[in-house]
Amino acid sequence: MSDAAALFETDSVERKPPLVEAAYDALKQAIRDGMFPPGFQGSELEMAHRLGMSRTPVHQAIIRLQSEGMVELRPKRGVVIRSLSPDDMREVYDVIIAVEGMAALLLAEQPAAARQAVCDDLEAMNEELVEALDRDDLARWADVDARFHAVLVEGSGNSRLAKIARINIDQSYRARRLTLRFRPKPVHSIGEHRRIIAAAREGDAAGARQMAQDHKIKARDLIVALLKRYDMKHL
């Protein structure tokens, strides 16, 4: 496993985080999974209770998520889960397009051994995506696809890009999951991933960047169109 994939796995599964990091991960996952849906309003104490955690680390996690645009702390109203409009989602995807394009370029410029290891991991995840689609398990596809793109960005070796990507991928997650049942089965993404991997593996920096950007431009245009078509104004 590459260093990038190992880091992602460690962050998400194996590493034993401090209490604040654990609260941050749990709260972010609860927002993503709909335990605290867009527009939810509650106290820090209520949210801590529902998460089975103490108030102090949850408070710190809320402050962090507020800086990332996922929640708001409002006087006398407590915590409010921010909703995102289709226009917000377009802006989120515009950032993802730029970040993933640059990440693919930087990955292709890595030393051969490093980029080959990352590409091996990406290929393995792409095969997981094939299996998920074969089983019509779109929820699994969405989770593995998010991991694929996280590892792609981690593989760039640029920690600042990775931080920006994580925030925006988290914000796009709700829209991606919500629109899964309305969009065509995403079989085309498999081939697009393969072309990105091939360009990165060959050291074709310009090609990898262009393919990564084109891939996310298609995703942006499809998701924003679906949100508008079905009048989904508050994600």
What does this molecule look like?
The radius of gyration is 18 Å and the shape is globular. Residues 7-16 have low confidence and may be disordered. By secondary structure, it is mainly alpha-helical. The two termini are 35 Å apart. Helix 2 crosses helix 4 (55-67), helix 5 (86-108) packs antiparallel against helix 10 and helix 6 packs antiparallel against helix 9. It contains ten helices and three strands; from the N terminus they run ααβααββαααααα. The chain has a three-stranded antiparallel β-sheet with strand order 1-3-2. It is 73% helix and 4% strand.
End-to-end distance: 35 Å
Poorly predicted spans? 7-16
Order of helix and strand elements from N to C terminus: HHEHHEEHHHHHH
Mean pLDDT: 90
Enumerate how many helices there are, as a single number.
10
The strand line-up of the biggest sheet is 1-3-2
- Specify Rg, calculated over alpha carbons: 18 Å
- The shape, in one word, is globular
Main sheet characteristics:
3 strands, antiparallel
Beta-strand level of the residues, as a percent range? under 5%
Helix content: over 70%
Query: Which structural class do you get from the secondary structure elements?
Result: mainly alpha
- The count of β-strands is 3
